[in-house]
Structures are given as structure tokens and as C-alpha cells.
Amino acid sequence: MADDIALELDCTDLRCPLPVIELGRRISDVEVGHLIAVVTADPAARIDVPAWCRMRAQEYVGEDATAAGVARYVVRRLV
After folding, report:
1. What CATH number has the domain bearing residue 72?
2. How far apart are the C-alpha atoms of 13 and 25, rounded to whole Å?
3. Is the sign of the CA dihedral 29, 30, 32, 35 positive or negative?
4. Nearest to residue 76, comparing CAs of 30, 40, 26?
5. What angle do CA 26, 36, 64 make, to 5 degrees?
6. What does the pLDDT look like over 11-52, one tens digit per residue?
7. What's the Cα-to-Cα distance from 64 to each of 5, 28, 35, 69, 73, rounded to whole Å?
8. Which residue range is the domain that position 7 belongs to?
């Protein structure tokens, strides 16, 4: 999954709701059909990112982790 990510947002030190705010601010930086990832240690992101995708008609692809073990939430831009 990591090889396909067009943009990775380093939100490691940001807490709810800032990671999804950053995602919303930057989603248009990737082309439709491409992936954007949010890297954050905030446990609320596990709920917030999929919920944001549902509300914004984007595709939640899933969760993995960076080499450092920080959670990474991957989204495909649909619109």
C-alpha cells in the first residue's frame, strides 16, 4: 500500500480533530483516484478518518503503520 501513496501527511503530534482537518485541507492536493495517508499517534483517528471519508464521499482504504510503528490511515480521493 505504501508504494501507491501520492501524499503522506505527518500529523504525528496532532490531536483530534486536527489530523482530519489537515486531511480535509490537503485532499485536493492529490488527483482523483490517488491515495493520501494521514500519519498520527492520535487514537481517535481510527474512528475519525473513516467517519470523515463517509461524510465527504471519499474511500477509506485502511490502516497500516510507518516503519517507526506510527499508525497511518489511507484514503483514496474519489471526488
Report:
1. 3.30.110.40
2. 17
3. negative
4. 30
5. 135
6. 999 999 999 999 999 999 999 999 999 999 999 999 999 999
7. 12, 22, 13, 9, 7
8. 2-76
